[in-house]
Records
---
Amino acid sequence: MLKPKSSNIPKATRYQNAAIDYYMGLTNSSYLHYGYWEPLPTQGEELTLTRLRVAQESYAAKLLSFIPESIKTVLDVGCGIGGNAAYLCSRGLIVEGLAPDALQQERFIKNTNSQVPFYLTRFEDFHKSYSYDLILFSESSQYIAALDLAQGAARLLDSGGYLLLADMMRFDAEYQEGIFSNCHVASELQAALEQAGFKLIKTEDISTQVAPTIDLCVDNFRTFGLSTVKYIADVVAIALPPLYAIGRWAFKRWLEKPIAEGLAARAIFENHLCYSIQLWQLSKGD
Ligand SMILES: C[S@@+](CC[C@H](N)C(=O)[O-])C[C@H]1O[C@@H](n2cnc3c(N)ncnc32)[C@H](O)[C@@H]1O
């Protein structure tokens, strides 16, 4: 399937996709998730991309620690560019991945040495004649409606099968607009999963261990992103004053608010969201 046209994608998701692209360029890593900072950075310690890559490896290990020993086959939904899939394969699991993005497909194949099947599709459109032992949603649940996720996962699992979900979630249902607003309301996702026959086996809130990545992204955006934009604006103001005037108007009109919101991302996260890893099991039907 081709990459969905941007006009079909909700605005909040498009903001998130832009953030994913930015993140890909920034980290140069095979993971697209926030990572798991353990130990936490000390007060005043510089947050570096090298440290982030270590945190991302720790996050993959953290996911693995949630996977029951009986599991052999995994469907990695929203598999990104293959970091988790490669990690799980190296630990002996048989993995397949899917994502609706051709650019990610290319990188996924490279990062998994063509060893892991990739399906270029949305989860909502994915059908298979066989089932998996576990379905993984690593920071991809927020792109899929709760009912589609719960019912789709139930269809691809046998009774007793597992669903492992790791993502940001809104604990504040009143938070409905802005950069993180496409994340599920935790209670609504829980209701959809229970309705589809899932039972929560294990959960952990890792908000604290994820938050340094938000600080790192904001720091880099402020230091490199905004100072580069300011430099370009200064040069244009000297060389082409009328263009500068238009650019300044457009900046104020469309960019000022999202940028201010991006810079406040840590506070928005702490006030309205949490980051949770949840292992669910489909009822055994006995
Ligand atoms: C933040 S990335 C996470 C990637 C990867 N799981 C990781 O942890 O590094 C979100 C992923 O969800 C995918 N995605 C977005 N909408 C989706 C959908 N409807 N069905 C399946 N995957 C989707 C994106 O293409 C991307 O691969």
---
Amino acid sequence: MQITALRTQLKKLLKINEYDPKKAYLLIPGMVSRSERKNLAKQASKLTGRGHVLEFGAFFGASTAAILCGLKQNGLTKEFHVFDYFKTNDQWFSDITRQLAKSHESLLSFDGEWLDFSGVYHYFINDPVVHTHKILISDLEWKNEPIEFIHLDLPKDWSQAGKIASETFPWIIKDAKLIFQDFVNQWSFEIGAMIGFLLKERLISVDGSFGSTLSTSANEKFGMDSLQSLITEMSDKTKVLTNFDYAFEHTRNFLNQEEQTILRVGRAVLISESDKVQGLKELSRAIDHMPSTNGRGSKALKNALEFGLQAKKSVSD
Ligand SMILES: C[S@@+](CC[C@H](N)C(=O)[O-])C[C@H]1O[C@@H](n2cnc3c(N)ncnc32)[C@H](O)[C@@H]1O
């Protein structure tokens, strides 16, 4: 087949106007892995339509398309709301965005130091069932209706997760699917602490782990009281560590050695925030557990070593 014909075919595949049985969502450039996308589609296909579907952090729409694929499979009866600012003024994020946009670079737009990538998202996601909200998460307001699915791929820390939790958690219904990205990342330990709280309170159960994602289900309707306790515990550094440890202990069976190392490094980062020397000790313990690998663990080791060097430097300063 000629290159041009191949390109046309690929372009057709990438247009997600309708449910595509060939799983075109796997081809959209994005930050979620193949297994994470497949899990999103699978979990979305199990919904009953008793509540709305929410996604925080869509980027070019890879995860959005995966969720959409699952929803179309089971017949969507509620609304699908997607929240993202779709622009960045961060150099690191802009560089990654331009790399991933590659052949779609003409869909990017620039305004001073801001890079707007909503054109790429709308190229891939143009289904009328998706309600897209181009907002900063600090401006989030939920319309106070039941929620049956949340994909959380925007917050990396409590300042963002807390806003989302405050607006949405009281509306989560029993058996809702709650999918937390960045659980297995050394920099997002506050997401781990939040998950630890939810596990400890028996509000959620773990369904599985895929890449850096933890996939869970709600055991019961979340109430206002649970939200208040979560907010209180997240403002207490000791409780944050205890809850993080609870999450680690209760998800260990779902995590391989490399993933456990990444969480240990996250724990060291968390401890170093209040005690740099203790943080360094935790870090060397984490590295002791490091399996010899070329996979994600080796990336965590590299990051851990960088963190260790920085921590050492700041201790000696
Ligand atoms: C990791 S990316 C999402 C990746 C996406 N799920 C995918 O499938 O590739 C995180 C997204 O969160 C958005 N974001 C980060 N901070 C934000 C904020 N404060 N308000 C709104 N959006 C934000 C970014 O624009 C980015 O698209």
